[in-house]
Each structure stands twice: as C-alpha cells, then as structure tokens.
Amino acid sequence: MSEPRTLTGLNCPRCGGTIPVPEGQAIVQCPYCDLRALVRGERGVRRFQVPCRVDHTAAAGRLGQFLGSNLAIAFNARQQARLSEQFLAYLPFWTTWARVLGWVFGQDKQGSGKNERWVPKECQVTEDMTWTGAACDVGEFGVHRVELTSQTVEPFDAEALHAAGLVFEPVTSISEAQTAARQDFEGRVRQQTRLDRVAQSVIRFVNERFGVVYYPLWVLRYLYRGRAFQVVVDGYSGQVLYGKAPGNTLYRAAVLVGGMAAGALVAVDVAALILGGALNSSSSDNGDAFGAAVVVFLVGLGIMFGAYSAFRYGEVYEFQKYRRREPGTSDNGLGRIVNEAKKILGQFR
Question: pTM surpassing 0.90?
Fold first, then answer.
C-alpha cells in the first residue's frame, strides 16, 4: 500500500507558514506554531482508485463484440470498422457508502370493488448501499455513474495513475453530490417497501463514508465509412459501458412496421375488448375496467411512439449500460412503465 500523497500550498492563519496536508486528512497541524486546523473542500475528501485489469488488446477486442451484439447495428459494421484511437482515462466519481436503516409506515390496498380495503403496514429495510455520480463533465464519455460492487478499491496513487493514462480531476459540487446520494438512498428505501400509501418514513444512515473514486475507462474511437464513433470499456471488468454505432436500416424499417401494427392492436382491439366485456357484465367494477382500458390504450400509443422513435433516431445506435438515475428510480424501463400505469389506474378508482 502506497503512502498517502502530501499536498502543500495552504498557509497557516496564525503564523503564515506553509502547512503540509496529507491526502484525505481532515485535521492538520502547523509545524511552526502547532495550530490545528480543519481542512474543508476537495483536499479533505478521501480519494481511492480502482485498478485497471483490462489491457489495451482485450479492450480493443470488446469493440468487435459490441459491433456484433445487436441487430440495430449495421450488419457490416464489425468488418468495416477501423480503430483510429485508443487511450485509458481515469474518471472521478463521487461515492457514498452507508448502511441504510429505514422504517416506512403506510397502507396496502387489498381486494377491489366492494371488497376493497386498506390494510395498515409497517416495513423495515436494512441494507448496505452505494451511490456514485460523475465528479466531472462526462458528456464526451457517456458514463454518468458506475456500479461499485465487487471491484477492488485501493488508496489513491497520483503518480501511478498519471503514468498509466489520462486523469481527470473533480470539478462538480461536493455538497450537491452528498445531497443526491442521501435522496437516492431514501428513494430506494421507499421503493422497496412497495406500499400503496406512505404515511411516514424514518430513515437513518450508519457508518456513512464519502470520497472520490478514480475509475479506469478505455476509450476507443473508430471510423465507419468516414464517420467517427466511440465506445467506452470498463477497465476493471471489460464490459462496454457506453457506445455508439451506425444503425441498421432494415432493422429500423422492420421495427417501425411491426411496432405500429402491435401498438394499434393493443390500443384499439385490446382496449375495445376490455370495454366490451365490462359493458356486457353485470359487475359493479366498471370503473376499474374503464381505467384498465385507458391504461392499455396508453400502452399501445407508447408502443407506436417507441417504434417511431427507433426509426427516427435509429440512424445511430446508442448504448448506455448505467443511465443517469433520478433519486429512488429503477433502471428497469418496464418497471417504470408499470409504475406509471398503476398511478393512472389509481385515478379511476
């Protein structure tokens, strides 16, 4: 384990002498007058790094795998792509680790119609959570966050990182990152409870730690028929985290035709079938049937809109493994659709 790097440049407020600041140390002592001071800001934030385990040859091999991984990518992209540039970059990510303890009190809806009732429920969540967010401008790289699960986290070694590749420094707000992390943890706790109504929640954080983690990313730029594209590979696991590729014209056309047909079937035929069954039934749950028909109609419209979007913007295929996550939301697109559908359905009850 390397010794922590010592920074200089801070002046003692009492005697004016230069105070050395070991990396990550929050309290320092002036060597001339023994005044103790609290270090705030970036120099008081602990720094870590994730080692790069994927060499340049293996990273370049991931490019070919990516170009052949999806039907939406031009079928000859893998054969005609020519690697033009490749380099290793270490991007900083604000990171918060904490054991989250949550108690959520609310109600669950059970039954429907005349048998509908609200049952009081108390949920408890105890989980170790990690939040990461880009600490610099990552628009060029498309990686807004990473998942720190089984990666080896080592003490920060500036000299080794600068010798290995490009190192970007944090420029975004620390306080905003810490606030976003807490909001994300709180949202995840409420999401796990799955309560229909939330009356009160109590959330506490234990052993909360904050720091900046420098993560290795291989950036590969290639040319396809004179057009430039880019792929970003995880330097630790070798997974593609972000990539752009030329789109497949035949695939776009097939998605447009098939999506429009499927969306129309769901929005018109299925919704009409639900309404027809409700009108022919003597049940008193017609309100629920009408709400379900509206949800199905909206789902059909969503399918048609998705098919059009795939055709309209499919000239360039874009992949992003970890999308920017709003506090308490899931990365599962289907899950978001289902949650929105439940909200709409609930308005008709």
Answer: no
